[in-house]
Amino acid sequence: MLLSGDLGAGKTAFVRGMAEGLGIDPGEVSSPTFTLIQEYRGGRMPFFHVDLYRLQPKEVDDLGLDEIARSGGVMAIEWPDRLPRGFENAITVRIEHGDDSTRVISIYSDR
């Protein structure tokens, strides 16, 4: 899953909801801005939360995201515009600020 949106739009909050749906304690989920990849186990399948905010596209290849994508778990990537190339069959979620404290969430699939 590719998660786009401005800073503070709610991408990590969305990821917490995904974690809960996978049977992972959402309170364990934090933004991986400085660690780049957080791995959560203990749910129905491994869950990987990736934050590319601090990287340039040429640095992303060193993370091994292709291998993670093939691992059989779920991967949520924040700031996918930093990816040097897309992922086949990825679901894209765009979160935008709405009125006051609301959010507008758009979901796309390239399948």
Describe the protein's topology.
Elements: E1 2-4, H1 11-21, E2 37-40, E3 47-51, H2 57-60, H3 65-69, E4 74-78, E5 91-97, E6 103-109
Parallel strand pairs: 1-4, 1-5, 3-4
Antiparallel strand pairs: 2-3, 5-6
- The percentage helix is 10-25%
Number of strands: 6
Structure classification: alpha/beta
Ends apart, CA distance between termini: 13 Å
Which whole number gives the mean pLDDT? 90
Order of helices and strands: EHEEHHEEE
Summarize the entry for a quick read.
The chain has 111 residues and is an alpha/beta fold.
Could you explain how this protein is built, in words?
- Strand 2 and strand 3 form a beta hairpin.
- By secondary structure, the protein is of the alpha/beta class.
- The protein contains three helices and six strands.
- The model has no long low-confidence stretch (mean pLDDT 90).
- The two termini are 13 Å apart.
- The relative contact order is 0.24.
- Helix content is 18%, strand content 28%.
List keywords for this structure.
111 residues; alpha/beta; single chain; globular; 3 helices; 6 strands; 28% strand
